Amino acid sequence: MAGKYDVVIIGGGHNGLVCAFYLARAGLSVRVCERRGVVGGAAVTEEFHPGFRNSVASYTVSLLNPAVIREMGLEAHGLKILNRTLSNFLPTEDGRYLLIGDGLEKTQSEFRKFSNADAEKLPAYYERLDAVADVLRDISMKTPPNPKHRMSAALKAASQLSPVARGSGQLHQDVLDLFTKSARSFLDAWFDSDPVKAVFGFDAVVGNYASPDTPGSAYVLLHHVFGEVNGIKGAWGHAVGGMGAITQAMKKACEAAGVEITTEAPVKSVMVDGEDATGVMLESGEEIAAARVVSNVNPKLLYTRLTPADALDPEFRRRMEGWRCGSGTLRMNVALSELPDFTCLPGEGEHHRSGIIIAPSLDYMDRAFTDAKQYGWSRKPIVEMLIPSTVDDSLAPPGQHVASLFCQQFAPELPDGKSWSDYREEAADHVIETVNNYAPNFKKSVLGRMVLTPQDLEDKFGLMGGDIFHGAMTLDQMWAARPALGVGDYRGAVKRLYHCGSGAHPGGGVTGLPGRNAAREILKDARGPLASWLG
């Protein structure tokens, strides 16, 4: 058996690296085991066609927490994030378009093309959404209460929810609406125009295998707006060099802090002796002993495949077998000979540097979900396209471009026992045709592509069901119940086993917060509650 570490971490995705950094900086010996040949999980940059590089899965920056950037010194390790001036460009089916971002007045001017009333309501909408997002930003950096602790849990819950309790009655109502309503019912209460509702409602179906009519989908809308870039709340940005630049900077920070990182080291199982996790066994047969084991993988993967069944309470294991995964996502990287030329807005322009949304109405999004349930993918899929080479010329040859296509409503499992490996290219062709309907030069400009179906995302990155969030972001799988009541405080169902990935609070997205928060709790257990978790 190898020498004993204070901590061994399963998975070198961004949250695993964040957790490792804080633990090592505090003086613990830490080893990270990553099954792939490169760290970063889904936040990696690869060449997918000769001369063309792009973020493979994760594709844009907003939720990465400023404290993580600052405390890990990521900028000193080479990370540079550029702001997106415009947020989104939405072509409509009648040949018009909507641009949002670049200031309130410009967005209001765009709204007036469709509805004067919607333009007038926009400042109040932003103000109310920001108020709820501020509450989430605060809660996201705290450890959820564990109901097993009874009185202390009640006090912690009261403390974390106190900003809501102290807020106005309007804040109370907005929080309730966003956590329980469908995206459609929430947006219908604010706006009249279909394109306006669509440009906001799109966030409710990103990584969410659901209709905008599904109760609770309004929260997913909110989850995507509580981040910030370079000090600007709700902004989106691009990491120069792709999303892999983030995790490579994290890797450098970890190594500088003394973390030992092992790639091509897939974990076969968590070792358990009595009631305690004692390390991990790799698929190679190597055993790595550690005082504590930290999991950065999907909780369902951890508890149904890696943890011995006899180490778990049968009821808990049953719950984990029912942990809902599957975000309905198909991801494409496309090499282009030229920029797409949109019929509604011809020529090169600032819209090419925004998020391009092909989903012109909430009805369109609902039909996409209905189709996916029936056929496996939608007849008219939801597509978000980013063209990062418009701001980062390191990704493509001169005059050419790379595009990220993030496509929603592709079933995690196809009906009738069909396999995604048999339908991958057909589905990809369908996406290309969908974009081509709005930009007729797009199909002929494609030089090469990488296609990742939900099954490919699971096989390549361990995202079970292709779930980019490591579990559905619904009320029953959030906060103290993420991944389950009694283990929502980053401490697992086996003693000395912890969660630090997106399957823990505050959930998915490249935030780094599950890793940061978990490190704080691990250090409390290792050194006592009064120990400084920042080292």
Outline the structure in words.
- This protein has helices spanning 14-25, 66-72, 104-111, 116-140, 151-166, 169-180, 183-188, 194-201, 217-223, 244-257, 299-306, 314-321, 362-375, 420-436, 442-445, 454-461, 513-527, and strands spanning 5-10, 30-33, 45-49, 52-55, 81-83, 86-91, 97-101, 228-229, 232-233, 237-239, 260-262, 267-273, 276-282, 287-295, 329-336, 355-358, 377-386, 401-410, 446-452, 497-499.
- Helix 1 (14-25) runs parallel beside helix 17 (513-527).
- It has 3 domains: 5-81 and 241-323 and 471-527, FAD/NAD(P)-binding domain; 86-215, no CATH class; 326-465, D-Amino Acid Oxidase, Chain A, domain 2.
- 35% of the residues lie in helices and 20% in strands.
- The protein is of the alpha/beta class.
- The strands form 5 sheets. Strands 1, 2, 11, 12, 13, 14 and 20 form a 7-stranded mixed sheet that branches.
- The two termini are 29 Å apart.
- Helix 1 (14-25) links the parallel strand 1 and strand 2 (30-33).
- The chain is globular, with a radius of gyration of 23 Å.
